[in-house]
């Protein structure tokens, strides 16, 4: 099976702190080889800010983006699904969105960021947070949920202005194709926008090459379309 492409160059990376939602937030920042580029927010899975998420940040940076992955769990990482579920449930959706909005503000304030708006990419829990965030945050112009889990009620998408590209698995038992279609219809009805939701012959977490559900072909297709999408929809600063 083909492997996912790895960055040709190692981006500059650092652990950072920044003010967000009335507190001091932590995160992982990766810069592209050029040192400057459009800004992308990367939102973790329910496991936490793991090595896998840091690797994805590096890969995005190698494609020319300035990437900030905020740590929503304050340094904790889950070791099994039950622990991950507890940690996810301990983070209210509204609080998570507030923290992410603060991270968007910090990202766009960086002198290395050349875009007037941010992209947002997230996986599983983070994919759901990407949708919640894009529904209320006008500074997000490109939203990419990978099998995004909507934990509670659907957000109100009437203020959504971002372009949306979503990646989902046909064999995902937690986010079925029927639920994806319902989400598509809701977004279109409330915002007038038509999200580009793509289905792959895979299950949940097909992008994560640290998990047994990894599907290399689906992951590669989703990755390449994501990179093109972000470059197309992150406008440069005037």
Brief characterization of the structure:
It is an enzyme of class 3 (hydrolase). It comes from Streptomyces anandii. The protein has 238 residues and is an alpha/beta fold.
Would you write up a description of this structure?
This protein has 238 residues and is of the alpha/beta class. It has one domain (12-233): Alpha/Beta hydrolase fold, catalytic domain (Rossmann fold, 3-Layer(aba) Sandwich), CATH 3.40.50. Helices cover 35% and strands 25% of the residues. It has 6 helices and 8 strands, in the order βββαβααβαββαβα. The chain has helices spanning 51-62, 81-89, 93-109, 125-136, 177-191, 216-233; strands spanning 12-20, 23-31, 37-43, 66-70, 113-123, 140-146, 163-169, 196-200. An 8-stranded mixed beta sheet has the order 1-2-4-3-5-6-7-8, sandwiched between helices. α4 links the parallel β5 and β6 (140-146). The chain is globular, with a radius of gyration of 16 Å. It starts with 11 loop residues before the first strand and ends in a 5-residue tail after the last helix. The model is unreliable at 1-8 (pLDDT under 50).
């Amino acid at each position: 099976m083909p492997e996912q492409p790895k960055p040709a160059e190692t981006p500059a990376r650092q652990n950072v702190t920044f003010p967000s939602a009335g507190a001091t937030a932590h995160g992982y920042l990766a810069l592209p080889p050029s040192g400057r580029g459009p800004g992308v927010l990367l939102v973790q899975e329910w496991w936490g800010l793991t090595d896998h998420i840091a690797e994805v940040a590096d890969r995005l940076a190698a494609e020319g983006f300035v990437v900030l992955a905020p740590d929503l769990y304050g340094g904790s990482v889950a070791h099994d699904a039950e622990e991950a579920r507890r940690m996810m449930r301990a983070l209210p959706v509204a609080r998570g969105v507030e923290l992410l909005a603060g991270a968007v503000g910090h990202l766009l304030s960086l002198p290395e960021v050349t875009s007037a708006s941010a992209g947002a990419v997230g996986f599983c829990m983070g994919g759901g947070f990407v949708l919640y965030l894009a529904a209320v945050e006008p500074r997000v112009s490109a939203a990419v949920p990978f099998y995004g889990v909507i934990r509670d009620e659907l957000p109100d998408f009437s203020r959504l202005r971002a372009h949306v590209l979503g990646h989902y698995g046909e064999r995902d038992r937690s986010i079925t194709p029927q639920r994806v279609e319902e989400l598509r219809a809701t977004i279109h009805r409330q915002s007038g926008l038509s999200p580009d939701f793509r289905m792959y012959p895979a299950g949940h977490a097909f992008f994560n090459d640290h998990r047994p559900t990894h599907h290399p072909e689906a992951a590669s297709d989703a990755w390449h379309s994501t990179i093109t999408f972000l470059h197309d929809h992150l406008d440069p600063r005037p």
